[in-house]
Amino acid sequence: MNIMFVNTWMWLFLLILHALEAGVFAVDSKQFNILYLIADDLRPTLGCYSDPVVKSPHIDQLASVSTVFHNAYAQQAVCGPSRVSFLTSRRPDTTKLYDFNSYWRVHAGNYTTLPQYFKSNGYTTLSVGKVFHPGIASNHSDDYPYSWSVPPYHPPSFKYEKRKVCKDKDGTLHSNLLCAVDVSEMPLGTLPDIENTAEAIRLLESMKDSHNPFFLAVGFYKPHIPFRIPREYLKLYPIESMTLAPDPDVPKKLPDVAYNPWTDIRKREDVQALNLSFPYGPIPKDFQLQIRQHYFASVSYVDAQVGKILQALDDFGLAKDTIVVFSSDHGWSLGEHGEWAKYSNFDVATRVPLIVYKPGVTSPFPRPGEKTFPFIDVFQGTREQFGKGRGVESVVELVDVFPTLSNLAGLRPLRRCPSSSFKIELCTEGSNLANLIRNQERELNREAYSYSQYPRPSDSIQENSDLPDLADIRIMGYSIRSNDYRYTLWVGFDPIRCQPNMTDIHAGEMYLLAEDPGEDNNVFDEFDHASVLHKLGVLPSWTESLKHHVIYLSSGLKSKGIL
């Protein structure tokens, strides 16, 4: 045998052996931990999403070393249905959960969840706080033991969340919407998200030397109402610097069925004292400013908890081995369109932050001793400047998280669900976004859409319009969002069969986002929709129905020079 040939291969063998010892090829071989951070009712009011007001240094710092999806959307803008949707990677018409009153494994199908899939692949799966929606929607157990290795943790102080603990100026206690508090005066002397953070850090420390990888999901309770947060966070947002929503009036062409009357806010004592008319109000301007102030302060409070957990990743030597995802279950209206809370198909209710960090992929591996996530004191008064990370402008969805995380962790890929998948335990109705995380987005994908939906009990606005029980649903608003427009059809819905009648059109909305980014000018009536409506009832699913409709509309808009 040629001596030079042998020496060459021996040299290559030694080089590879040295590289393996140095960990050069660890990206492909090692198992990464997963840290999934989920905020409640958080729209992308964050510095890394170019919000000029909110102070969110820790989430911004995470974004600077991550891929940031700027157009990510929930599948239904209410907690229970959204969480079951993204944790199973199935849309609400597949989970059959539109309210809080059923458990998908019984009512729809025995679908495998995201943590369950990781658990079946050898991960220790851990839940802290609000991950699944509590109650019937997760079998009164947060889907334990299917999804979790040990019973989920719930902070003891959460039982006081809706109690009369908000001190008024006269010292009396109320159950208010605006509820900035002295934490030391609270029952148990703490707050739920403070307890969540401490438990998450304890679990990280317990897992730092484990031979098994972990999947830790941490569900924060804020900025969900009531705004029961430490009082000091209000100092970050002086009331005199607060402004109203840029479009605080109900749009003239908004169908009644599309409006949400924010009934959950109306139940709080301080809002009841305003004697607001139903359904439109409006809320007095000075109180609107206070709501916005408290929401922004709640975001900074959550950001501080995120910072403490990320700092713990560094302290325990886990930052180089852990994929981090930060997101929310849906958004929250802050006075846009004369609306508050979620319960709609507008961007402000459906759009969410979605940030994914994988060491060695979205940023280089940290060097020995280097801190990736040092804690930042937001009260120091300096606004930290961070890079923007890798931005993705193409439209994505929360149902994409499950197949994406599975891919990034090196697990077996999920197959795509067929049009009817009620009897299939493991498949995805989302898309794998791993390629957008591993590689810079080269061009905007104008063929990408998100699909959201929202139920209503009637065409007119009622007390239960925000959150009707399944038996009361008569209309479903199916909405498709591209980079160019949002298109919504409000159609008849059969709550017994959980099926829409796509030819029974009650109302429609069409917003051209280039000229109307706030979705205030409904131009639905300016376009000819009739010629394709007869096709919609024979297609296999509403997503396919609307996709065909949108293709038709897109060609029409392009021919008119609008797109």
UniProtKB/TrEMBL annotation:
Enzyme class: hydrolase
Residue ranges constituting the Sulfatase N-terminal domain according to the UniProt record: 33-410
GO biological process: carbohydrate derivative catabolic process
Pfam families named in the record: Sulfatase
Cofactor: Ca(2+)
Keywords of this entry: Calcium, Disulfide bond, Glycoprotein, Hydrolase, Lysosome, Metal-binding, Signal, Zymogen
Quaternary data: Monomer. The 58-kDa mature form is composed of two chains resulting from proteolitic processing, the 42-kDa chain and the 14-kDa chain that remain stably associated and form the 58-kDa intermediate form which is enzymatically active.
Family, similarity comment: Belongs to the sulfatase family.
Protein name as it appears in the record: Iduronate 2-sulfatase
Species: Cyprinus carpio
